[in-house]
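Journal club prep — side note

Before the paper discussion, L.F. wants everyone to see what a predicted structure for a comparable chain looks like in token form. Sequence:
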Amino acid sequence: MYRAKATILCIDDHRNGLIGRKMLLEQSGYQVLEATSGEEGMQLFLSRAVDAVILDQQMPGMNGDVVAARMKFINSQTPIMLLSGYTTPPQRKLQSVDKFLSKSESPTALLSAVHELLNLRPNSFFHRWLDRWRVQNQTVTK
């Protein structure tokens, strides 16, 4: 039986990292779309069907957390992984992403994270927001 390759949208303003990730993912059987800015990534996200998104946190113009929030507003079922070469971003910047990974992680860790991302049970942005709201308001009602 033929199984279509998963399509991953990679967004990073650092071309070398973007090309390296693209090559690794393609060697692992994924189809990869690439964008070098948040704006370009949004255009691809709107015009092409993608199974997952991997995006850089620090980019000129639109940071990764802003891009992720916009993408989740458009399609809450698309899993998104945020990458950063710096420390883990504050929790508020991770609200719209399904997974966070440091850029210093090994290629094996990246592939494992992509596999987990693609196998996540869809949990819509609304449901994640509702779950957080319930937790925050449990202490208020008790």
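L.F.'s comment for the group: Helices lie at 15-27, 38-47, 64-74, 107-118, 125-141. Keep this in mind when we get to the figures.
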